[in-house]
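ARCHIVE CARD
Drawer: 12
Card no.: 0347
Subject: one protein chain, sequence and derived structure
Cross-reference: see card 0346
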Amino acid sequence: MMTLSTKGFCLLVGIVVATASVCPANTDWPLKQDIDLSSGFGDYRPGHFHFGVDLRTGGIPGKSLFSPVDGYVMRVRTEYYGYGKALYIKGYDGYIYVFGHLANFAVNVDRPLKAAQVASRRYYQDIEFPQDSIRVSRGEFIAYSGQSGVGAPHLQFEVRTPDNIPVNPLLHGFDLSDKTRPVFSRVGFQMTDDRSLFDDGTRKMFFEVTPDKKAGRYTLDTVLYFHRPFGILVDCFDRMRAGGMKQAVYKLSVYIDDRLFYEVVFDSLDFATTEAVKLEYDYLEAVEGRDWVRSLFEKTGNTYQGSRAVRSNRGVFGLKGSERIGLHRAKIVAEDCFGNCSQLTFEFLWGPPGNVFTLDSTVSIAADTTQFYFSPVAEYEDLKIDSVKVFLNRQQLWGPPPTARVLPLEDGKLQCEVIGFKIRTAVLRLFLFTHKGCLIRDSLFNGLLVKGTGKISLEYEIIEDGLLVTINSRGAKGSKSRVELYYRDSLLGIEYPRYFNMNKYICFIPSRKKYARIDCLEISMSEDTAYGAVLSDSVHIVAVGFEEREDIAIGKFLTLHLGKDNFYKPRYLELKETSLMNRSRLGLNSAYYQIFPEAFVCRKDFDVILKIPSINRLNHRSGLCWLDEEENRWVWLDDNQFEDNVLTAKSTGGGIFAAVFDHNPPRLKYLSVADGRTYGNRKLAINFIIEDTLSGIGDDEDIVIKLDGEWLIPEYDPETGQCRSKPLEPLSPGKHHLGIRVTDRAGNLAEQYLNFFIKQPRKKSNR
């Protein structure tokens, strides 16, 4: 098998990228300055990929933009959120070029846009122009950059195919000077079966990687041991220059033993499958602000076409059960669009699905001496084990007792001799050390009592793929244990935790239909059902995603309406209701309702329905809200509706929810026009700030500005609260009347009315 060096490999990639891309001809960047990117193609955004590249504009709006191609304006769109002001140019090369977050358009676009806004009395517009009705030439001025919609001042620039598929601009005619390699910071591993846990009791682990002296090389120094199927994650990013903004890596390739195992590339994206961003990236890492963690295996429901497993294993090592026992070498290659490469290498040891050694017999040769005999699995020699030690558990710690020794026998068999008078209750296991420094925690072969202590406590946590139940024991001896799951006093099933140490037992329970409703967990420190539970805990855990549609109640008044299509795969949720004595003093119109975990992956938003407990004339001033605990503020949910004393809204995750009153109208501040003042500018700018404490401004119909009874175009930035307008025609000298009405989503109205004057222009002298 031929192995390519990194340098040669990257050169080959650069050639392939250069020749494989079908590029638009004769294109220029829309900014006539040095191009610096603040975001890349395929970057993580909440709920979607980033469909273009973001060009920095020096932190200010108003940079002139120019058409990259010959073509015509095909569409213009304006809204307060999303892209803000956006322009679409259809090039004669067939591609569509999109410019987002603009401040203003060229006159030939701005004039028909404003005419449509005035005619409809709506700021929101989506206008498609006939072919060639507004022609543009390459290099012709088309717009000014801005910060409309979302984000600081910048230009979002996209290239789309004739079928409206976004493609990577850096591979389609828009070049950059980029000599900076991608950067690796961490590598992660995630269990993918229905039972396994890492040695720390988790299902997912991350490790810091070490940069080598050679540029672009990274290593994981630890050799890890796996014997259950797992997927790989990697925390990595790219920059176009040293010190530049982080961006998504264009291409990631996983090699196992020099054979391609999995790859993902950001060549093109599809609006129809954009929600796959939650699976291409690690969603739980992203919501914590770590946006660059990529999943290098196929998660259930991932429809993104740019990622693929080379073999029928979904990129999961060990899925088929046919992998070779022994040491494997992994390599992850990160490449940008310009042939700059980095690689991360690590080794891991793959073992048999069970233990390496099996206890054959136990012999007591004296009152204080016991010998244990073990046989290895058939592939024992492939693990290259250097030494085997007996470890003893004391409370949370494991260590080698001085009175234990291991003697090798023929055919890899072992004799372990342990001296002590309380061997029966000594919790012992084998620790295996390989020549690569890999540690295998093997057979737990002695010391677990049939019945253990009753001094225990219980913890449980819902994670992304199941339920973790942890038993914390204060006993001085180890034992077996079991978890019984109930609903309405009916036993649903029994699960058996894994012994980690005398103080900790952990059980992973995947989402199962038989556990669709759980209201009680009972713990017994024995596997024998003759011994009853020593601890019982009431819970409200549901497994969702099995039924086509279902309504799940939290208490008497709140209901979740959801089904299979809301989730990529079934999962658990925990539900709680907390009643409040003085909720009206807190501005609440309901109890607290909690959905755990706070963050989880949804395919699409689910419905939250709350019947308000009491009827009063102000209920319509309340809305369903989510508590942002970091900011300690309520967030008004999207699509809030009130009808027949029932609130409905949508949510994409968990947390704390309640109906919250919004009695406060918006505040209009810093109005640039004063009552009774006289101005000389006949196109007087009307600027002010809108502040709202809770529900916020819904859309353009919530802001009405009238000058002398004529509707004016309200330009509003929801992030800064700035609202701007001006008359389209010069004002006549004399008195004018200004009226402003702003309504928030709760229906609270703010009004301001005033009169001002325009000076009579001075007559020009005849001298």
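Annotation on reverse: The chain has six domains: 22-171, 183-350, 357-446, 457-544, 550-661, 667-758. The radius of gyration is 33 Å.
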